[in-house]
Description:
By secondary structure, this protein is an alpha/beta fold. It contains 10 helices and 9 strands.
Amino acid sequence: MRVIAFASRKGGVGKTTLVGHLAVEAERRGAGPVALIDTDPQGSLAAWWNQRSAETPLFVGIDIRRLDEQLTELRNHGVKLVIIDTPPTVDHIEKVIMMADLVLVPVRPSPHDLRSIAATVDLIEAANKRMAFIVNGASVNSRISNEAVVALAEHGRVAPVKIHQRVNFAATMTDGRTVCEVEPDSRAAGEIEELWDYVQRLLPTLKKKNTNGRKDDALEERVDRP
C-alpha cells in the first residue's frame, strides 16, 4: 500500500479538488482499491464524497491520533493506495507527512502563495519525505504561471503538467464527480490524466513476481529527478 498526502500550510490552494480527482483517476487506471481520508475539520472532501453515487474510491473516517494503526488496518484489508487531504494546521500536517510515501504540494501561481511554501517545505524536509509541487489554478499561457515553475524548482521537484483554472473543475465537484467522468474529452480531464501519469511514476512500487513465481523482497523505485 502506498500513501499520498496533499499538504500546504496555505489555505485555498485547491487540495481537496485535486485529491478527489486524482483518487478517481487512480481507481479508473487500475491502481485501486483506493481509499480517501479527510483530516480537515471542515470536511470538504467528505462532503464531496457524500454526493458521489459511485462506490469507489472508498472513504475512510479516521482518528488522527490513531492514523498509523488505521493505515495498517487498510493495508490488511487490501487497500493499495491511500490519498489524504489535510488542513493548513501544522499538527495534522506533520502527522500525515510522517505516514506518507509521497507529499504533493499544490501552489497557486501568485506571489503570496509562492512566499508561503517555505513553511510546508520545512515540514516535509524535516520528515525526509519525497515531494513534488503542483502548479494549480494557472491561467492559460500566463507568464506568472511559467515563472512560478521556475521559482518552485529552486525548492524541489515540480510536476511538468500545470492544472489550469477551468470552470468545469468547480462544477463537477458539486455532485461528487470529476471532470474525467463528466467531460472525459475535455482539456481539464487531459490534465488530470497527465498528472496521474506523473504522480504514479514517483511512487515506489513492489517488483513483480520473477520467473520462478516468487516475489522479490526489494522495492523498485520509479523516480523522476528534479
